[in-house]
Every structure is written in structure tokens, then in C-alpha cells.
């Protein structure tokens, strides 16, 4: 009996491996997105800005992080789910001319606890025709079961009514990157958007192999940027001998790393293959650095307040939105209305 069980197990593992090989081959043959370094340096500023706790400066786009390559951006919607320490915004940029959606990642002061909790916890995705697709429960519920999703979808609808069928770019860092990917899939599958692009920074794995395959088919214009020994892209763990059950990245990765010795250190970029798990990119290193997780392209990817989820806001700005009984905040503006710059304090 014992020998029979071992034979069954070996057979199953071989079938898993064979299926994974066919999937890899299919991904490699598919057209992969082109990496645009200039676009990456713009989007990383949005992913950094969404961490800010001063909602007045963020909503009026007058913050220190709002005066670089993102200058001229106009926020239409800023949503803060205080209950779950989540934050996101939707707005329209001049360059690139697109609707930008950005999600905040995990506060760095709770990052270690979040990393320690970043393991299995898989959850079936409630989308039509997606059998066997599993995603991390925390990422899925953070987007679908909070105030975030309805606010995002409403803002996208209003933006498209005013600006027409404009391109949509979704971005985020860390957990914000995971939510960005789930949002993009939702926009594509459930909202039938045809022109959705994604770029994330330091994103963890989100789901199983079936999810990675389906995501790549639905949202092929996706780039995942990883940085040197950043720990988060290595989690949840990937087990090559259980390809259908383990967590797995989708393509395409761009790995930022340092080369040289001593004081002669240079930054380099490697455009990875179409497997999602290129062994010559971030998987070629140990992935044990939190400091590498908190900086991308020289930009800080962390909050500006030592306290987790602290909010600062001018009372006049709150009049532009609503605050529900649970303390969640939704600030909105009509793009047709001239925007008055307000002071950051009462």
C-alpha cells in the first residue's frame, strides 16, 4: 500500500511538472510588454506619493513628492479605508495622457509583521469562468471587500465620461502592487476595459499558476519591477516541484540590481524572460533585504509618519467628500470644476 501511494505521488508531481512546462512554453511564445524606463520613473513617483498621510497636500497635489515628473496631475478621487489601513487615488495625468490609479503599500513599521504573515491563505477568485484560480485571501479582500473597489470604479467611470476612452495605468508598491494587479484584472474582466496597463514595484506573488496564466492572458501589458535583494517579491514562496499549487509570479519582470565592487557600484536593469520566474533575475539572489524594498529608482517607498495609518487633513478638504460612520474617507472632485489650491492647515 505504501509503495502504491508513493507511485501515485510521483505520478502527480510529474503531471504537475509537465503541465507547468507546457505553460512556460506558451508564455515565452506570447508577445511580452516592452519596458519603458522613463515611464517607470514617472509611475514610481505616483506609487511613492500615495503613501503620504497629509490628505490635503495629496488631494491638492501640492506635496513634496508631487512636484517632480508627476507635476500637473489632478486627483479625482482619494479614498482612505481607515479600518484596514488602505489608501488609493484616481486621477488624470498629462504625460502620459492617462487615468492613473495608485494603491498604497504596507506601512514600513508593520512591514515585518506583514511579511511574517505572507504565506498560503489562498482564496478562490469570484470571477466568471475562472476555475482552479486561487489568489492570496488578504490581497483579494483588501480590494474587493472594502471601500476601495467601489470608489475606484466610480472614479474611473466619471473620468472616462469627461475625458473619453483614455488609457488606464494602474500602479502600486508592495501590497499596493498586488492590489493594483487585482484591480487591473477586475477592470479588464468585469468592467470590460480594453486598454489597461500595469506597472508595480516590489510586488509579492499574488496567486497560483492558474492565476498567473490567466492574468497574463487578460492583462498582458504588465511590468513588475523588482529591486536587488528586495524580500517581498520572494513571497509567498514559490515551489517549482508543485507548480499548480504554489504561488507564482506572472510576467514580465524587470530586475534592478547593482554591479561593481567597493566604491565602484553601478545600477543596472535586466529585462527578464516570459516565465514570470526567471532564475537569472530576482530569484538569482537570496531576497532578504527590507531596505531594498523601501527604495526604487532612488525614490522613497514609505510613509511620512512614524505612526501606522495616521491621517492629517484640512477641515475644508473634508467638505469636498464624505466620512462614513466607520471613519473611512472619500474625497472627490469633478474634473470640469476649477481646482482651488488650499492651505495645508486650517
Secondary-structure blueprint of this entry?
Blueprint: H1 2-29, H2 37-49, H3 55-59, E1 74-81, E2 86-93, E3 98-103, H4 111-116, E4 122-124, E5 134-136, H5 137-144, H6 148-163, E6 168-173, H7 175-189, E7 196-201, E8 207-208, H8 209-218, E9 222-227, E10 247-248, E11 253-261, E12 264-271, E13 295-296, E14 299-300, H9 315-318, E15 321-323, E16 329-332
Parallel strand pairs: 3-6, 6-7, 7-9, 9-11
Antiparallel strand pairs: 1-2, 1-16, 2-3, 4-5, 8-10, 11-12, 13-14, 15-16
Pfam families: Lipase_3
Protein name: Fungal lipase-type domain-containing protein
GO molecular function: hydrolase activity
Structural description of this entry:
The protein has 346 residues and is an alpha/beta fold. It has one domain: Alpha/Beta hydrolase fold, catalytic domain (Rossmann fold). The chain has nine helices and 16 strands. It has a ten-stranded mixed β-sheet, sandwiched between helices. Strands 4-5 form a two-stranded antiparallel ribbon. A two-stranded antiparallel ribbon has the order 8-10. Strand 15 and strand 16 (329-332) form a beta hairpin. Helix 5 (137-144) crosses helix 7 (175-189). The chain starts with a helix and ends in a 14-residue tail after the last strand. The model is unreliable at 1-26 and 339-346 (pLDDT under 50).
Amino acid at each position: 500500500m505504501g509503495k502504491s501511494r508513493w507511485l501515485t505521488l510521483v505520478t502527480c508531481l510529474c503531471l504537475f511538472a509537465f503541465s507547468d512546462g507546457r505553460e512556460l512554453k506558451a508564455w515565452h511564445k506570447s508577445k511580452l510588454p516592452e519596458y519603458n524606463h522613463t515611464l517607470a520613473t514617472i509611475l514610481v513617483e505616483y506609487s511613492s506619493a500615495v503613501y503620504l498621510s497629509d490628505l490635503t497636500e495629496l488631494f491638492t497635489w501640492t506635496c513634496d513628492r508631487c512636484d517632480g515628473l508627476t507635476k500637473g496631475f489632478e486627483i479625482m478621487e482619494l479614498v482612505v479605508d481607515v479600518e484596514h489601513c488602505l489608501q488609493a487615488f484616481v486621477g488624470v495625468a498629462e504625460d502620459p495622457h492617462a487615468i492613473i490609479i495608485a494603491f498604497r503599500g504596507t506601512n514600513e513599521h508593520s512591514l515585518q509583521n506583514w511579511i511574517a504573515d505572507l504565506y498560503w491563505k489562498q482564496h478562490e477568485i469570484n470571477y466568471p469562468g475562472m476555475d482552479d484560480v486561487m489568489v492570496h485571501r488578504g490581497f483579494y479582500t483588501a480590494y474587493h471587500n472594502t471601500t476601495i473597489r467601489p470608489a475606484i470604479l466610480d472614479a474611473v467611470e466619471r473620468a472616462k465620461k469627461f475625458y473619453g476612452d483614455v488609457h488606464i495605468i494602474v500602479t502600486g508598491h508592495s501590497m499596493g502592487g498586488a492590489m493594483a494587479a487585482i484591480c487591473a484584472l477586475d477592470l479588464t474582466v468585469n468592467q470590460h476595459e480594453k486598454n489597461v496597463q500595469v506597472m508595480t514595484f516590489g510586488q509579492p506573488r499574488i496567486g497560483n499558476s492558474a492565476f498567473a496564466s490567466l492574468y497574463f492572458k487578460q492583462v498582458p501589458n504588465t511590468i513588475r519591477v523588482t529591486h536587488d535583494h528586495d524580500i517581498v517579491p520572494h513571497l509567498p514562496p514559490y515551489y517549482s516541484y508543485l507548480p499548480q499549487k504554489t504561488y507564482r509570479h506572472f510576467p514580465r519582470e524587470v530586475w534592478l540590481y547593482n554591479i561593481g565592487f567597493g566604491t565602484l557600484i553601478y545600477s543596472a536593469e535586466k529585462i527578464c524572460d516570459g516565465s514570470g520566474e526567471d532564475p537569472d533575475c530576482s530569484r538569482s539572489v537570496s531576497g532578504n533585504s527590507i531596505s531594498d524594498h523601501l527604495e526604487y529608482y532612488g525614490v522613497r517607498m514609505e510613509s511620512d509618519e512614524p505612526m501606522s495609518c495616521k491621517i492629517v487633513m484640512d477641515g475644508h478638504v473634508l467638505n469636498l467628500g464624505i466620512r462614513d460612520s466607520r471613519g473611512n474617507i472619500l474625497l472627490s472632485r469633478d474634473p470640469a470644476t476649477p481646482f482651488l489650491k488650499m492651505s495645508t492647515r486650517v
